[in-house]
Each structure stands twice: as structure tokens, then as C-alpha cells.
Amino acid sequence: MQIIKKVFRFLWRFLIGFFTTPLLAKFVRNKFLLWSIRLCLYVGYYFIALQLNLFWLFGYLPELAEVRNPQVAIATEFYSKDSVLLGKFYNENRTPVTYDKISPFAVNALIATEDVRFYQHNGMDFQSLFGSVASTATGDGRGGSTITQQLVKNMYNTRKKVNMGLLQYIPYLRTVVAKTKEWLTAFKLESFYSKNEILEMYFNTVDFGNNSFGIKVASQNYFSKQPADLKLEEAATLVGLLKATTSYNPVRSKKRAKERRNVVLGQMLKYNYIQQNVYDSVTQLPIALNLRKRMSSDNDSYIRQFVERSIKGWLQNHGYNLYEDGLKIYTTINSRLQKHAENAMRSHLKKLQKSFYEHWRGKNPWRDDTGVEIPNFLEDQIQKLPLYEELKLVFNNNIDSVNFELRRKKPMKIFSWEGYKDTLMSSMDSLSYYAKLLNVGLMSIDPFKGEIRAYVGGIDYNFFKFDHVTQSRRQAGSTFKPFAYLAALADSFTPCDKFVDKPVQIKYEGGQVWEPKNSDNKFSYRTKTLRRALAQSCNSITAQITDSIGWGKVIEYAHKAGIISKLDSVPSICLGSSDVSVYEMTKAYSTFLNKGKRSDPIIVTKIYNSDGEQIGDFKSYTEQVIDEETAWLMCYMLLGALQEPGGTSQALWGYDIFPKNNEIAGKTGTTSNYSDAWYMGMTRDLVTGVWVGADYRSVHFRSGSGQGSRAALPVFAKMIEAAYKDPLTELVPGPFPKPWTKIKRTYICPVTPDSTEFDYLFSDSLYIETPFDSVFVSDDTTQKEIQEIFD
Predict the structure, then answer these.
(1) Statement to judge: residues 143 and 9 lie in one domain
(2) End-to-end CA distance of the chain
(3) What's the domain count of the chain?
(4) DSSP designation for 677
(5) Backbone angles phi, psi at 592, to 5 degrees
(6) Do 595 and 623 fall into the same domain?
(7) What pLDDT band is residue 611 in, cutting at 50, 70 and 90?
């Protein structure tokens, strides 16, 4: 800021010194004429400095060549970690249209609303400008920009930070500079193009909302017709959108869109583009949309949408347009692992869906907690959809007509595991069909870098836009239990401490009593170590340790590990009674393997501009939240799901995923009514979260087929099986790391009634107690190394 002030001080002194010399005053005696000449010189100097971008003060100004040949926007590409093109960001639905293919209603509506003197000025309408200044002074915020100036702002991005010079940091002055540049460029445009050509460029570049750039695509998307065929009310609706594409979006709010449309019609009446009787009749019409059913191409995906959400704020702060600036974005995704994840999902979900249909053969699956079919389920659900409100407007709230339309069969394309199908189906039939489909969310993360390696937001983005990794939150069931054991270990417990599997009663707020049952509704009354209790997913012991340390501590350590959702402060929280996302569960489990460091998952690492210059570099934010000893013990605890008898991950032994003494840790999860099936799997260098279930919680299995070990675990297993056979996934099988820190506490696991041998801290290790610290010696430790430990 000081540099800018000095530059201005120099320029001002130069101007005053030059233009107030006695020489000029000597030849011009009249003071009014003298100052008039000086003013003209000042303005001329300003325009010259603006054109030259003197001292980088004024920023980019389109040159004549650019005005005569406007540049086409460049697509942004995004790549995987292994440099495979994953997709593009571009305004694919901007299709140019010639002036004669645009409805006269649209042209007249635009001129009447935005620039009524369009045919009388040369790009700068000083009459309108002075009028807007006067109206602003009286509280009426009427704009003064001409259509040509708006075109300049849209086409050349004159208000973007990267196109503004150093003066952008000075309030008011930056606005004056931007306006001047728009005036100059508008004058150039008017010099090279006819009025109709300018209107044509305007209609082809303007944003009509809902990713509809240009009037041709907007006409197709909102009304399923060509721009030449737009009716008066439709043209007025589109022009009304230009004031604020979000506020007046007819898809989001027909009421506000209608109000704005009628304002446009009022302007057309005022300037004699329509007659009073036409205005009176058209303003009464409802907003009647005919939205085009567009099938997404391979360009769009869950990853593409997540990448955009992840960097949207950064792009805005740095003045870049994702869809026009030709950026190159490098993500953390491993294309090979992503492919294996998608294949594993398809392979298992196809089979599981068939099993689900067989399970409910001849019956509807939407049931309440007692198993009774929910009456009027489809009717109640369809009334919550935007389609229902649209039909009410179309049929003037005649519910009989709405219901008839909802049950009228019509051609549509639907998803199926055998491929997309063209069929005849009513809206009610469609809702019934899709409500019975099972969906999935999967995310794999490198726990040490916080980088997302695979991301599957659902079974098919073309039909299911809802992202089941980040946008969906469901009860985690038993996959939440590790946070209770984490809190216990952080308190004073050890993996070897023992509890009895027995009925439990826990009193909490308001005198309520919670009596958890095990998944099989039985109690063994046997003593179990904490490791075995977690491995066998014993509810009663999990509840006992929660009662001992307090459920507030469980919540505290869940948040420390990485859970960000609000968690209910009730004892049942330890069994996963609150809703969480796949994203945050995977993040939290990664904390264990990352030596207690919590890392925020990232999907973008680098961004380059169209010139190949790196403009963005991203790394995961990491924070130590759990001590290293406790983190290692949690990994050891989770290994018990395979190593302890009765561990809930035993189904993994049926897959070829144990080369080179490979170890896998994990936890299954199932909600009480089988609505949600989870599996959290950990290898030595990857953490994966998988959720499987229907979008409606009342739609689910009634038996073991809906358990996490059967519905979710196979997706993880099949992905890892394929990944280990593919060296390009960069996954290296092998055992988990040995303690990465000194174990400072002594953990001794004595014989228990259900043990056949001593329970050492490592099932393949020998526990040695020395006068100093506890140490762990694996089977491959040599006698010499053991002697050195004692020495």
C-alpha cells in the first residue's frame, strides 16, 4: 500500500508540475479555458496510462486483436496421481446460436429490461449512466451498464482479480478503473460488430443458472425447446434470471421466478413491446417448466463433483474460473485402485441386490421397527419431491389430476445391474423401483499423507447424484466401538483388562435405563479381554467400559480422532447410535495408523494454469491428537478381528489377500434393524471405509444378509484382492508395523476361562519384562538380540 501511495504521489506531482507551468498559463489567459484544457490533458493521460497499464496499476485491457477475435474458453482437466486423465470441467452445454435463431421475445425482453437505449448508443450510454447515479442517490439501485458493457464483463472477465492491476486494492478507485476499461472495450466492440452481432454474442455467453450457459442450452434445459420457439412468458423468465441466477431460479423457487418474470413483462409493457391485454393475461400464467432429462456423460462423476467442492473456495479467492481458465488439476486418486474399487462394488452389489429381491419376493420392503409395512409409504415420499410441487402448479392444486399424472406411464430410462433400460413406467412406479435399490459409499485413504486414493460415492452417478461418502450420514453401528476402546486405553485400561459378558443396566439423564443386548440376544457370562471383546464386537462389554469412563469421553475421543458430526450424549453412542459419514469414519480410523496424528483428507495436490505454471500446492493439515503408544495399541486391538477366535472379520480369510504374511485390521458394523452395513478395513498402508444400504432407512434386510460382514466387507475384500495383484496400485502387502514408540506401560494378559493359551500382547510375540521398560520380542528375534536387550 505504501508503494502505491508513493507512485500516486509521483504521478500527481508530475502532472501538477507539467500542467501548471507558466508557459501554459502564458498562452491561455482565460482561467475556465485553462482548467478545461488541463482537465482534458488529465483525462487523456489517464486513458493512455490505462491502455499501457502504466506501472502495472491498471491491469489487463483487451487489445484490438482480442476484441476482433474473442478467445474461446479452455477446458480444465483433472488427472489421477498416476497421470491418467479422469475428466474435464468445461461449459459443455454452451452451444452457440445465430441471431436469427433467437426468439424476438427474448431480444425485446432483454433490451426492455437491461438497456432500452441499446440501438441509440455506441457502447456507453451517458444518459442512462447519469440517470442511474441520480436513482442511486434517491435509493433506487438501477444499474447503468449497457448490454455491450455487460458483454465485456462476461467475455473478458474484467472484474477478476488476476485481470486487475495494483489499483484493485484501493476502494472506489478500482471500480472507476474497471468501469473505464469496460467503456473502452465496449466502444471497440461497437466499432467492429453490428448491434445484432453484439446481441448474438451476449445471448451465447451469458449464464442462465443450473450450468446453462447460452440461451440455446437454457431453452433446452428449462423448457425442452429451441430458443427460436420460446413463448413470451418463457423468454421473460430466462431474461429475468440474468439479474440473479440463484435467487430467481425457477427450479428452486417458482414464486420468486414468477415475480421477476412479471417485472420483465412490466418493462416490455412500459416500452411498448407488448400491449396491456397481453401483459394482463401472461402475468397470470404459472411458471411452467419442462426440464430436459439429461443423462450425464462420462465427464461427470462423484470424483469430479468432490474435486470441485474441494477447491471451489480456493478458486474464488484466487480469481480463477474452473470451467474456462484451462487449468490442470492433479488429484490424489490412484486410477488403478479406483478401478478396482468400482469393480468390487459392482460385482458385490449386483449379487446383493438380487439377494435383496429374493428376500422380499412378493412383499414391500418399507417397514417400521416392528416389521410392519408402512402404509402410504410411496404416497408420502413422493409428496416430498420437487416433482409433486411442480405438478400442483401445473394442475392448479387439483390433487386428483396430480395423482393421475403421477400414475400415468411414460417412457423413461432406468438404472439396472444388467445395463440401462428404456421402459414405460409411471412416477410412482419409478419411486417404488428406486426405493428398493441398495447403494454404497466407499473411500480409501493413505493414512500417512491424508491423500484419498479411491472414492466411490454411489452405484451410478448418472442416476444417483447424492454422494454417499460426504453428503450422507448414517448410524455407524459397531464400527463406532473403537472410539470407546480408544477412550478406555487413553484413560488407564489396557488391551488385556478383562470384563464379563453379562447383562448391563446403565442409568442416564432423566432416570432412563439403557439395557444393551448382544447381536445374538445372548450373554456368554465368560471373561474376555478388551481386545477379544472388540474383536467379537461384544455389546455388553463395550457398554461396561463406556459406563466406567463416561460416554462424554467416548464422544471426546471420537472427535479427536476425526469425527466431525454432532454426537448424542447418551450411553448408546458407544454402539454407533449417531449419524456419521464414510468420509469422517475413514479419516478417524486413519489416525490410528498414522501414529496418533489426525490428517484432513485431501483430493487435490497441485494446480497449474494454462501456461503450465504451478499456482496451487496442497497438503493435508496434520495434528497430533492421540499419543503414539495408544495409537499403536488401537491398531493392535483392531488386528484382533482376524487374530482372535470369533473375530467379526473372519470372512476375510476366504479371499486371496494375505500374501507375504500380510495383516489386515478392521471392524464390521451393523445397525440394529440392518438398515446400515459398514466395514472399516486397514492394511499397513491404506484405510478404507465402506457403507452399504438403501437410501430410505426403512428399506433393509431382516436378517444376517444385511450384516456388515456380508453386505459391506466383501466390497473391501474384493478391492484389496485385485489391488494386491496389480503392482500399479502401489499397495505393498505385509505385516503391520512393530511398535513405533517405546511401550512404557506393562501389559500382561493372563489365562482366561475361554483361552487355550496365554494371551500375549502380540499373538506371535514373547513378552519379556525387564527392570526398565516393557519390550516386545517377535518370533524372528535372534537369541543374540534378546541377550542384548537384557544386557
Answers:
(1) no
(2) 67
(3) 4
(4) E
(5) -65, -50
(6) yes
(7) confident
Q: Is residue 307 domain-resident?
A: no
> What is the pairing mode between strands 421-425 and 506-508?
unpaired
Per residue in 408-442, pLDDT (tens digit) is 999 999 999 999 999 999 999 999 999 999 999 99
pLDDT above 50 for 778: no
The H-or-E segment that residue 431 falls in is helix 427-435
Length of the chain: 791
SS (H, E, C) 444-504: EEECCCCEEEEEECCCCCCCCCCCCCCCCCEECHHHHHHHHHHHHHHHCCCCCCEEECCCC
As a whole number of angstroms, the distance between CA 262 and CA 280 comes to 10
- The string of pLDDT tens digits covering residues 73-102 is 667 889 999 999 898 887 644 567 889 999
Grid cell 421473460 in the structure block, residue? 236
Which helix (H) or strand (E) segment holds residue 719: the answer is helix 713-724
Full-model pTM: 0.68
Last residue of a domain, one of 709, 729, 749: 729
Q: Specify whether 378 is located in the same domain as 240.
A: no
**Which amino acid, 340?**
H
Does residue 29 lie within any of the structural domains? yes
Q: Residue 451 pairs with which residues in a beta bridge?
A: 446, 602
Rounded to the nearest angstrom, the gap between the alpha carbon of residue 422 and the centroid of all alpha carbons in its chain is 30
Least confident of 138-142, 188-192, 466-470: 138-142
Instruction: Find the domain containing 606 and state its range.
Output: 440-729
Please give the angle made by the CA atoms of 447, 451 and 455, to the nearest 5 degrees. 105
Which pLDDT tens digit goes with each residue over 631-652? 999 999 999 999 999 999 999 9
